[in-house]
Amino acid sequence: MTFPGSARMEVVMGIPVMVDIRTALPQRELTPLLDDAFGWLTWVGETLAPEMERFSGGQTIEQIPELIEIQHRCNELFENTGGWFDRDDHEAYIRGWAVERLSRALTNAGAVDHRIDAGGDVRVRGSAAPGRQWRIGVRDPQQGTMRTVLIARDLAVATVGHVTVSSADLGVAGAYASAMHRMDLARARRFADRLPYRTVIVTPDGTQEYGGALQLAG
Fold it and tell me: Does the structure show a pLDDT above 60 at 74?
C-alpha cells in the first residue's frame, strides 16, 4: 500500500531515526521539512548531548537556552521519581525531548500526520492514512515478539529494558521508563499504579503487566 507524504531514515544521535510524514504535501515542501528535521536532530546530537556529558562530569557548560531547559526538566524528573531518574543518565530524556520538539515543529509546518521512530521510541500525530489511526507495537525485550499494540492519533511511547511508558510527551515517557527500569519489580509496580500514563512491564518470567489509564488494543 502506498501513502502520501515522504519518509527518510538516517542514523543520528547514535541511533537509527525514521521520520515518516503522511500529510499530502507537495514534494517541494516535504524535502526541506525532512532536511530541517534531521538537521535539528544532528544539532542536538552534536551540540546538546556533549554539553550534557560535560555537565554530568562536573564541568562548566555552555549557557544554551535549550540546554538550560533540559537541565531544569531533568531536575524536575529527578524529584518526581524520588531520585530514580538519574540526572547523570540524561540520554533517555534528551532523545525524547528532541523528538518531541521535532514533532511540534512538523505540526506547526503543516505536516500534521507523522510518525517519528528514534531507536524504537515513537512519537505519532494525526493519521497514518485517511480514517486510520497509527498502530505502535510493543515488543518483548527478551524474545523480540509483539506483546501488544497501541492505537492512537497523538501519543508518545518509550521503552527502556522491560518497561514501556506511553504519554503525551516522549521525553517524559523516556525518563519514567528509565526510572522504572532501575527499580525492583515491586517498586516499579507501585510506581506505575500512581502514574497518569499507561505502562507495560514485562516481568522476568515473561508475564505482561499494565498500569495507568490509556486504552490499549491488540
Answer: yes
What region, left, alpha or beta, does residue 205 occupy, with left being phi > 0 and alpha being psi -120 to 50 degrees?
Answer: alpha
Backbone dihedral region for residue 210 (phi beyond 0: left; psi -120 to 50: alpha; all else: beta)? beta
* Residue-wise pLDDT tens digits, 129-157: 999 999 998 876 666 677 788 899 999 99
pLDDT single digits (tens) 193-216: 888 888 988 887 777 777 765 443
Specify the CATH number for 6-211; select among 3.90.580.10, 3.40.50.720, 3.40.50.1860, 3.10.520.10: 3.10.520.10
Sort 207 into a burial class: Cβ within 10 Å, 0-12 / 13-18 / 19+. exposed
Q: How far is CA 23 from CA 2, 3, 73, 128, 199, in A?
A: 13, 9, 31, 9, 29
Terminal alpha carbon distance of the chain: 22
Decide if 138 contacts 47 (C-beta within 8 A).
Answer: no
Tell me the C-alpha to C-alpha distance, in Å, between residue 77 and each of 62, 71, 86, 88, 196.
Answer: 22, 10, 9, 12, 14
Q: How far apart are CA 112 and CA 105, in angstroms?
A: 10
Total-model pTM: 0.90
What residue spans define the domains of the chain?
6-211
Helices 91-108 & 65-80 angle (0-180, nearest 10): 120
Q: Is the CB of residue 3 less than 8 Å from the CB of residue 128?
A: yes
